[in-house]
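Structure ticket #2291
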Amino acid sequence: MAEISRDEVSRIARLARIALQEDELDQIAQQLDTIVDAVSKVQQVDTDGVEPMSHPHSIDAGMRPDVEKKTLTQAQALDQAPEVDEERFVVPQILGESE
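Resolution: structure written out below.
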């Protein structure tokens, strides 16, 4: 296992603009060593023949059948609109957009 030195922790903290006290450097170096060790163990696992997956459990989305239904016509949709222009809804201008 490659050990992370307190100088490396200090440099990383400086780059990340994280203020660390002198007594924290050794503690964080040890914690980072533990993390790196755990990741290296995971990388050693033989995954040959294992299908990549996005979730540890199979997910059945339970999709409903796609059924065509009657919808409003354009005239029906615009019928109750407060203001219409050229068969489109008129809405207030937003974000200072020009017309």
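Closing remark: The mean pLDDT is 88.
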